[in-house]
Design a protein that fits this description.
Blueprint lengths: L3 H12 L6 H15 L3 H10 L2 H7 L3 H7 L3 H12 L2
Helix pairs in contact: 1-2, 3-6
Length: about 80
Amino acid sequence: MINIEQINIIIEERKQIPVYDDMSTMYKWDELMAALGDDEDDIYNYLSSIDDDIFYWIEEIYEEIIEKFPSERIEELFIKRHKNN
């Protein structure tokens, strides 16, 4: 189950991390992956419905999501949303 409230908090915290702070960034990525949960359908539906700003920050963990869910439809969704931004 996706924890949308937690995702929003994590993204707000991530926005405050300086570009050069790789360790803190990676820690936030781990938290974000955990908040996304384990259900591929939930993640697909969530990624389809979020606004562009939230998607921009989720896109940072594109590789981790694709590794966890090697799904063509999720990969295609990332490609489609990325091209539209």
